[in-house]
Amino acid sequence: MKYIKMLGLAAVAAMALMAFVGVGSASAVTLCENDTATGCTSHVNSGATIDFSAEDSIKLAGPFGITIDTCTESTVQGTTSTTGTDNATAIAGTVTSLTFGKCTRLTTVGTGGTLSITESGTAGNGTVTSNGATVTIHEIPSPFPSTCAYSTSNTDIGVLTHNATAATFDISATITHETANCPDGTWSGHYVSTGPTVVKAVAH
């Protein structure tokens, strides 16, 4: 379960990274360092480092809404690999660091995977997708195995929402288990864009 939570965090981190990357115009998506109300005059370029930090607890819930793991600290850092100038339909990025701290169960991260952001249909917002992120939660009580591993596979993990100060990323996703007899987990949490590059919106 804790692993799931970590994965959720990773997804959140990925989402945050995607937010930094941004979503562009009708034919491309672009990440903005200023609010969309100003016309996105400052774009986040390829190769930029983006950080997201959890504003509240990150949670992973199992069957019947039972909380499996809760982490009060989490960060996501990544590097963008595409920009709106690439005329891409999605902004891509690699999660270089995904961390979870002060968790109710031992939670370890295997890989942060990759993230991408596409248009959400709402101006300034974007849908975040995570692929290849792996998290393991340990010390899980019976009837489940003591250790459960989770991973994302082109999983929509949440929405990057524009904000005049700093974009936020709300995670809400079902993360599938990789370990036999472990339950799938519902991951939820709230992240905000931090330095060195602060993402504020996704331009459509």
Instruction: Please give the share of residues in helix.
Output: under 10%
Taking pLDDT < 50 over at least 5 consecutive residues as the criterion, the unreliable ranges are: 1-27
* Average of per-residue pLDDT values: 82
Taken from the alpha-carbon principal axes, the silhouette is elongated
Spatial separation of the terminal alpha carbons: 36 Å
Q: How many helical stretches?
A: 1
Number of domains: 1
Radius of gyration: 16 Å
Number of E-type strands: 14
Share in β-strands: over 45%
- Sheet of most strands: 12 strands, antiparallel
Explain what this protein looks like in three dimensions.
The protein has 204 residues and is mainly beta. The chain contains one helix and 14 strands; from the N terminus they run αββββββββββββββ. It has one helix at residues 2-21, and strands spanning 30-32, 49-54, 58-61, 67-80, 91-103, 107-111, 114-119, 126-131, 134-137, 148-151, 155-161, 168-177, 185-194, 201-203. The longest helix has 20 residues, at 2-21. The N and C termini lie far apart (36 Å).
